Amino acid sequence: MKFVIGNWKMNGSRALLREMIQKMRDIKSENRAVLCVPFTMLDEKNDVVALGAQDVSTHERGAYTGEISASMLAEVGAKYVIVGHSERRMYHDETNDIVRDKATRALENGITPIICVGETMDEKRAGKTFDIITAAVRESVPSDVKDTIIIAYEPRWAIGAGITPTTAEIAEAHRVIADTLAYMGLDGTPILYGASVNSGNVGEITAIEHVDGVLVGGASLKPDEFVSIIHSAK
Ligand code: PEP
């Protein structure tokens, strides 16, 4: 079983979600599909695909205008939440500490956090990829985890760029993350690859050791393409 998790970002509509659910009805695959949609679509009831959010507040409640708490996500049925996506880290200055607090709130409310880590192109050029992702995993994962968490390795320079790291680069990054998780007593934690995944490259990527699935951005907005990715993840 591989995870195939779509991240719609601030795209899509309820009509597209309904079309996607219809297309996904006939899928014959053991892979687990999830769609992380905008907050306003999380209440779309269906028996085909689990829905998740793309962010959550660090706070439980209170005077935080515009924020959404983990208990509110749970109330509308969200099963997953992406935390620490590079766009949140980049545009909202989210640090590993903030990401850890968000993941903690999710776990407290029975929601599986999908914790994103990844290096920028400057960090890659400076040879810092493994230091960055190791620190991000150590600092963004809550202590004393008892329930499932998911890590997504997303090289920031490859997101939405139509390029992916080499197979060897993905393998090395995932091995470093797997070793870090094992050191933390969290071996077996699923590790997803994300950035420019499509139906043409998903088979090769999911065949790499320690790649337990994929996080898909742009291609998850195209129903036929997303269904094809779910079928092709091996
Ligand atoms: C993402 O932003 O999580 C992502 C994987 O995007 P894309 O697939 O479009 O590169």
Which percent range fits the helix content? Answer: 25-40%
CATH class: Alpha Beta
Q: What structural class should be given to the helix and strand makeup?
A: alpha/beta
Question: Order of strands in the sheet with the most strands?
Answer: 1-2-3-4-5-6-7-8
Tally of discrete structural domains: 1
Can you tell me the overall shape? globular
| CATH domain topology | TIM Barrel
Number of helices: 9
Main sheet properties? 8 strands, parallel, barrel
Distance between the termini: 8 Å
Which ligands appear in the coordinates? phosphoenolpyruvate
Mean pLDDT: 97
How many distinct beta strands? 8
Features:
234 residues; alpha/beta; TIM Barrel; 9 helices; 8 strands; 15% strand; globular; binds phosphoenolpyruvate
